[in-house]
Amino acid sequence: MQSVVRTEQLTKDFLTGFWKPRPGRVLDAVSFDVPRGEVFGLLGPNGAGKTTTIKLLMDLLRPTQGRAEIFGRPVSDADVRQRVGFVPEQPYYYDHLSAEELVQYFAGLSGLSRVDAVARTAAVLTRTGVRDEDRRRPLRQFSKGMLQRVGLAQALVHDPELVVLDEPMSGLDPIGRRDVRQIIMQLRDEGRTVLFSSHILADAELLCSHVAILARGQVVALGKLTDLTAPAMHGSEVVVSNVNAEAAARIGAHAARVTEIADGRYCFELAPGERPEPVIAILAAAGATLVSVSPVRASLEDIFLEAIQ
Ligand SMILES: Nc1ncnc2c1ncn2[C@@H]1O[C@H](COP(=O)(O)OP(=O)(O)OP(=O)(O)O)[C@@H](O)[C@H]1O
Ligand SMILES: [Mg+2]
């Protein structure tokens, strides 16, 4: 099967230092493939090289060595751009324009006729949740979450096959994050391929089938997300309220640790390998209210620190 995105030994040096500029390696032989129709996460801590990789894919930077292809063609190919939608990390849009004007402008650039551009703009703004009453307001009055929605609309207006998003969740509130997640899932359901970057593992876990984890410019882990995170599971935490002392004591036998948070609200920490379901069943039978169940695991940092060794 042909990959939608392929990088081979992608390497980028930047000159750094004011008095004595020296080349510093920011990306070091990065190779990965993004399969068609999948959501692919480019993960890693701040400064890992995610944005640099994305800029190389978008042909905004030239690699020092190595190469990148989209749809089996060089990223500089004009035909490639027509088929890709892109939202940068910090979209400094022309902020005197309205949301509608900006998206129509990009629609025009992609070659749509005026009539189609107007119709498509209205449709994508609806899809990304930009309200009717906001569409004619200048973008400088928009909040970060609203701008992210306009950015997505701009990226989708020409019906791209591949959508590339640099930190699409950053700065969004929980509802905004959920909305962006839903849009990404819809794009996948429509058969599009999505590549996005994030430094938050939880975002990736809710969205990605495949990931590449970057650290200090190198790919330290690559593959299906479930394969990468499974060994990092360290048990789970079950928080419940309305628990009587007798039930709490009974569950205590299953738990590695029990903490009473406040009256009747407990946190039960379960050891690796101990499944939370039986514990939840006992608690539910005792009339307790489930507050949360969270897997305890190594952080993204731990996973790549392990991978570096
Ligand atoms: N134009 C540039 N000149 C010199 N160094 C640069 C340049 N652009 C990026 N860098 C350096 O490259 C490294 C990787 O930066 P990059 O923006 O790709 O990281 P990132 O993974 O996107 O991080 P973040 O999560 O903070 O967005 C950083 O150390 C950064 O300082
Ligand atoms: Mg970045």
Briefly, what is this?
This protein is α/β, with parallel strands linked by helices.
What structural keywords apply?
14 strands; Alpha-Beta Plaits; single chain; 6-stranded mixed sheet; 33% strand; Rossmann fold; alpha/beta; binds adenosine-5'-triphosphate
Structure overview:
This protein has 309 residues and is an alpha/beta fold. The protein has helices at 50-57, 78-82, 99-109, 114-127, 144-156, 174-189, 201-207, 225-229, 245-252, 276-285, 300-308; strands spanning 3-16, 22-35, 39-43, 65-70, 73-74, 84-87, 162-166, 193-198, 210-215, 218-224, 233-241, 255-262, 265-270, 289-297. It has a 6-stranded mixed β-sheet with strand order 6-7-8-3-9-10, sandwiched between helices. Strands 2-1-4-5 form a 4-stranded antiparallel β-sheet, covered by helices on one side. Strands 12-13-11-14 form a 4-stranded antiparallel β-sheet, with helices on one face. β12 and β13 form a beta hairpin. The mean pLDDT is 89. Magnesium ion is lined by residues 50-51, 89, 166-167. The site of adenosine-5'-triphosphate (ATP) has 13 residues, from β1 and α1.
